[in-house]
Amino acid sequence: MANEARLKARKPRGFVDRGPDDVKATEAMLAAIRAVYELYGFEAVETPLVEYTDALGKFLPDQDRPNEGVFSLQDDDEQWMSLRYDLTAPLARYAAENWAVLPKPYRSYRCGWVFRNEKPGPGRFRQFMQFDADTVGTGSVAADAEICMMMADAMEAVGLKRGDYVIKVNNRKVLDGVMEAIGLSGDENAGRRLSVLRAIDKLDKFGPDGVRLLLGAGRKDESGDFTKGAGLTDEQIEPVLMFVGEPWSADLVTKLTALFAERGVEGLRELQDIEALVAAGGYSDRIRIDPSVVRGLEYYTGPVYEAELTFEVPNDDGQIVRFGSVGGGGRYDGLVSRFLPEPVPATGFSIGVSRLMSALKAVNSPILADAADLGPVVVLVMDKDQAGNYLNLTKQLRDAGIPAEMYLGSSGMKAQMKYADRRKSPCVVIQGSNEREAGVVQIKDLIEGAKAAEAYKSNADYKAARPAQVEAPLVGTAETPGFVEVVADIWQSHGGILRKPAARS
User: Is 299 annotated for ligand binding?
Assistant: First the structure.
């Protein structure tokens, strides 16, 4: 047995573990976002991690085993199933399956893990969390405007300051109008349209000159790598650059109206309507029309939007760059209708949870400080034959709503104190034989004790003084609080919240 090779502890590429601090911070952020969603009248729903592959969308690769971009497996009846790659396609299936009983329009939010079968890289994972909100069953652009307002409110709810973010809005119908104007409509030009959209998406990174190269023959970067372009002529490139390069204005609308056919003009009108609704709601300083916004998924059919953070951070190469997008979405009027004999318009957006968390860390959001919960109070075990007594002390703390644990290891007091430090405990409860006979406990405030330690010259002096350590009776009186009350005061003084104990019959 000693010579047998041990299993190597390792996680799959593209997946990450999350420690308690990250989990707590994420939960605090999600709670703030959830409160905004519910304030707008959205309700929670959950869908499975696995869906039938054909329900996820026609844009998935058409192969014998559809595992390119998604993780797939065959059911025992030989039907292909895939891990969901976003939360929108499963919602479309859920809404269609329950359409007869859902309130219409149907407003819901969902939070959960999604999976991409793609090559992992720095900051690019195969499993990540999204937090979505959608309105299904209305074609009114008021729903799109409201989603954008809610996105803005969510950004501020998690601690981002006004001016550190902007919600940018565009419209796929306008993009379609540009494509039609330059002769790229029709299925035969689908590949070239995608190349044009990818080029537009690089505007912030490469500027108008770089986009011009990507729209034309191609672009060579500083390393010499060449990216093939969309192959447009100069005459085709100019309308595209006019659309994405000029700021949104009445003058731009006039120019584009003269250029577009009916669908493109309809998109312009929708953007103007959204702009007016946003102004009426008092959000014009946070939501703006931006023709450069391009969303990659093919199911978008109308307004599209992105939440972009405008502050600067160093990238992996040490260069100072804008943080960029932390979420986005748009109108997908055809996705639910695939399952039903009637048109079902829908719109929604998704927040990238991990990316938003990185942004909050970069700006030291107060919501993360609030999430730095204390660890539990630790009841030290001085006499192993008194385990029942220590467990009773622990239970009394829990009954008062104070998170607490009895030390379950086999180490002595010094190691137990070190354990409590690692658990981020605000205090420990100590009861040896002398305290037990006297009906008292010693309570040591570890946080205040650490501060007080700086004033002592030696460890011996510190131990003799016992700073931040008090004695309390097991049962209090009107004049003298008991140990539970003392611990509760320490717990709350360090920002701890008393948890409501479970009701007992």
Answer: yes
Whether pLDDT at 456 is above 70: no
Instruction: Tell me whether residue 271 is annotated as binding.
Output: no
User: Any known ligand binding at 347?
Assistant: no
- 87 annotated as ligand-binding: yes
Per the listing, tokens 């719109």 go with 347
User: Tokens for 194?
Assistant: 């995608």
- The amino acid sitting at 462 is Y
Is 130 marked as a binding-site residue?
yes
324: left (phi over 0), alpha (psi -120 to 50) or beta: left
* Pair 31, 367: CB distance under 8 Å: no
DSSP track, 297-346: -TT--SEEEEEEEEEEEE-TTS-EEEEEEEEEEEE-TTTGGGSSSS---E
Contact 358, 22 (CB under 8 A): no
Using H for helix, E for strand and C for coil, what is the string for 21-62? HHHHHHHHHHHHHHHHHHHCCCEECCCCCEEEHHHHCCCCCC
109 marked as binding residue: no
Structural domains present in the chain:
20-49+84-182+232-370 (3.30.930.10), 375-493 (3.40.50.800)
**Mean pLDDT, the chain, whole residue set:** 88
412 or 187: which carries more pLDDT confidence? Answer: 412
**Residues in CB range of 475: below 8 A, 6 or more apart:** 439, 482
> Does 26 carry a binding-site annotation?
no
Annotated binding-site residue? 116:
yes
93 is in an annotated binding site: no
Q: How do the residues of the chain divide into helix, strand and coil, expressed in percent and rounded to 5?
A: 40, 20, 40
pLDDT in tens, 212-269: 898 888 888 877 788 888 888 988 898 888 888 788 888 888 988 888 888 889 999 9
What amino acid occupies position 3? N
